[in-house]
Amino acid sequence: MMTRSSTLSRCLALLGFSIAATVAAVLIQPSGRPPRWDLFACLAAAAVAVVGASLYLRRPSSNAVEAGGKHWWVEQRNGWVGFAAWSWVVLAFLVAYAALSPAPAAYAIVDAGSAMRTTEIEKVLSTKYVRSQRTGHYSSTVQVSVPFDRGPKISDAEMTSSDKPRPGDEVWVLFAPSSPDLGFFIGDRQSLEEKVGGRADLWFVFSTLGCLAFCWLMNLFGRWRSDPVAGLHRSHQHGTLHALPVSVTGVGVALDERPASTSETKYLKPRMRMMSADFGELHLYLDDIVDPAPLARLITGAQGHVYWRRPTRQLPYANSVGYAVVILDGQRYVAGWLESPDASVSLPMSALVPADQQLPAVGVHRALHPVSPVEASANFTVLKALLLGIVALSVITFGVGDLATVVLSLASVLTVLVGRRLAGRQVKRHLESLVPAET
Question: Where exactly are the transmembrane stretches of this chain (predicted)?
Fold first, then answer.
């Protein structure tokens, strides 16, 4: 039986595959005459995925707790949303590029019966080296002989090249042998093939993949943990794992001493309070998308163990203990950042887990993921922004003109970024509304 979370995962997987297919379609054929039905079909599938995910988010869940799999996925939500938002810049650029790159003159030559052959440069009229940061190219005006059916025709043409052109050098020419009035294009073979529907050159492909890899590293590097319980086993092997028995005394909201990486401002975070007989009070700070109210109803008074590993370097935060996983009785867990009201107190000798002690089995425990209207509303805001962004890009695929293409691509990017910010504000306002209860 499919759960609500598994259905959402399938919708989001379809969204990811559809966007990846859109990127691949542009790289395979960056210049195609509109309408681009291949791009439209990929974006339409992405829109269906977003609508499906939105409908499931709006449906009330029959369970108070989602199974959530073995991953504490909400901890990585901000990373995934950030990756999607900034990768959207790459997607919007590619769709706009596919709309702006087709040359009507090139396709007029194709319709008239095109040919692509080599010809020699008869004369170099002018050449200039154009430097661009660390690279450069030659921009030249040359005379070439184009072999039309009615006889060769010597004409002037503009060209760019990495080497300085000389008379007698061979260049490729795209022309319609029976229609000299349509003109011609010269250059290297790959660039001419791209003009009439060929694949993008390798530099363009690697640049696109490099931008996507950069977005991945900036948003997800260091955030991705395949399984927090498996991480405990790795720390145990290194002799850095600590554990204490605890009881949960409550869940609320408090200022986290760790500021966001982009500022020195401390932010409100959901905070789980625990009591340890050996170490006193401990606090576990969770991802800000977690709703403290339903979580408190589920785990207040629960017993379990908190496992943590100390950071490998000295942190500038007085109360930080380290990344931690709380495994509750009943094979459910919560993951977050462990802090203590007084981290200067020495840890008890029993806190370090001995090398021969048995740890909880990997793959058995499941993340505790209480259903939250606030989380659903924030995710719904992000999905609505994505849908509007998809619609804007879909319109571009029909060929709406250069100005409209630029405006729609910029609007698509801004819509997604603004949607992400609005979702963050929704969560922030909800946490602020819970502060009076934390007294």
Answer: 35-57, 78-100, 202-221, 382-400
